[in-house]
Amino acid sequence: MGEIGRTSNCLAPDFGGNVRPAVITTSLPLAADKPVDFNLAEFCSRCKLCAQVCPTQAISYADQPDFEIYGLRRFCTNLAKCRDGWNLGAGPMGCRACISVCPWTKKNTWVHRFVREVLSHDATGTSQNVAIWAERTLYPKNYADDLNPPNYKGVY
Question: Nearest to residue 98, comparing CAs of 5, 13, 3?
Fold first, then answer.
């Protein structure tokens, strides 16, 4: 389905952070699929856009995953601070500032298509740098002052 990103949420190659995994219990015989690996951890290590816009500063700025659980390394997110962000007047869907700036979330933009198609073939990191630059340059509304307290009203 996806990988765990800097925000500690599942990010899918096609939908970015617009995924909310759920559990369905069944006794049906289901075939296991292969794990998804689209180099998200490496991308998140360079990007940090979500950490920059987080109104509660709940998302780690670390250069590499700084937390390990069950052998899985990931970025540490202060979930208590994140939950506080849901109470900033953002409405029932919560803050979502981190999701709004993630290049993986913008499925129908050339930035997302570029990242999705090129990233797994680029060992130099150039495509990551282009995607991060494009996100900041072409979508500046995501970095407006109203994404941070005391003016924060959510991204909807």
Answer: 5
| Cα separation values, 124 from 63, 74, 103, 130, Å | 17, 22, 19, 12
What is the pairing mode between strands 67-69 and 72-74? antiparallel
Residue in the block written with tokens 């340059």: 137
Q: Cα separation of 127 and 123, whole Å?
A: 9
DSSP state of 156: -
Whole-number Cα distances in Å, 34 to 89, 91, 93:
40, 37, 31
> Tokens in use for 23?
């559990």
The pLDDT tens digits of the residues spanning 120-155 come to 677 777 877 887 888 778 776 655 455 555 555 554
User: pTM for this one?
Assistant: 0.75
Which DSSP category does 95 fall into?
Answer: -
**Calpha distance 50→44 (Å, rounded):** 9
